Model the fold of this input.
Amino acid sequence: MKKLVLAILVMAGLSATAQDHDMKSKRGTMKDLSPEQVATLQTKKMTLALDLNETQQSKLKSIFIEEAKMRKSRMEDFKAQKEDGKKLTAEERYKRQNERLDHQIERKNAIKSILDVEQYAKWEKMDHHKKRKFNDKRKDHKKERRMSRE
Done:
């Protein structure tokens, strides 16, 4: 019985590391792209999904370029902070989360002003689905990490 439990734990650990490797490799491909390349891909995906016209495409692309640049600099800051071993205080975490939420509100309003009512409704559904899918993957990843520690 103990051997069976041990075998199951080993298999779970192996599958968890294999899945983690797949996630990192996918993220690595986007991480290596320039902000302009990321924005171009995002714009084309939205164009296909929402049938955007040229004006909408150019406006959204400029928003996506700004976001990609900001995201890249933020990732570099997080990486440097992690290497230094510095932990954020509760006040710093609150400030960052507040800034992130303010940015999300601004982004949503900007996109709402560019898209028509029908496109915006479809975009909200897509965005909500994407966020839910991301959170589900994140929860699964946390469970796998917890199980591998035990």
Notes: Confidence is low (pLDDT under 50) at residues 19-24. Residues 63 and 107 are 8 Å apart (CA to CA). Helices lie at 2-31, 35-50, 54-84, 90-114, 117-149. The longest helix spans residues 117-149.
